[in-house]
Amino acid sequence: MRVAAAARPHLAKGIPKIKVPAMEPLIINELQVNRNNENLMLKLKLKNVTVFGPSHFIINKININLPKLSMDLSITLPYLDISTEYDVDGRVLIVPLKGTGIFKGNITNTRIDMSGSGKIVDDLKQKKYPFAQVTDAKVKVKVGDTSKISVIATDNNPNARQLVDTATNFYRQNSKQVLELITPIIEETGLEVAMQIVNQIARSVPFNEILVD
């Protein structure tokens, strides 16, 4: 945990030398989500996703086993300020979702539990040194308070504002049920992004230089 605390300011600014992206803010150029089941039909594109708050994580527990290349980690994110452009077409339960706009939200006290394992890659065609890569990971997310959200329609559809208001009101009245539907998407998307970042960093650091305090 002392290592994580010491690394926090570097994570916020990023470390270009080893390809660590800045976490304050964390910027994701584009994300796409496609789902088609009974309760959730969704074709969603997010652009210019900007998130403030990731570097302020609180470590609940961490267990790293280097010989077995495994890790268990639990963190809490006290707050996340999120803004993104969206383009959506689909429905959640009985509520239609369609149009483009801007989403802004402040989400507090989100808990993330992760476990993962990896392997050592020793391939001189890729790198001149052995490096670690995450090969399998699981994540569970418990989203905190989502009451402070706003959605602004930006398309020319005269019914866009009404659709946004209907969807927003439905969410506020049924947030628990909606979150149960979308949490697996949050987990899957977040895990994909995290693994890309972690493996990109790991490729830049020889495994024998990884030390745990």
UniProtKB/TrEMBL annotation:
Gene3D superfamilies: Haemolymph juvenile hormone binding protein (3.15.10.30). It comes from the Eukaryota. GO terms for cellular component: extracellular space. Pfam families: JHBP. SMART domains: JHBP. Signal peptide: none annotated. This is Circadian clock-controlled protein-like. It comes from Diaphorina citri.
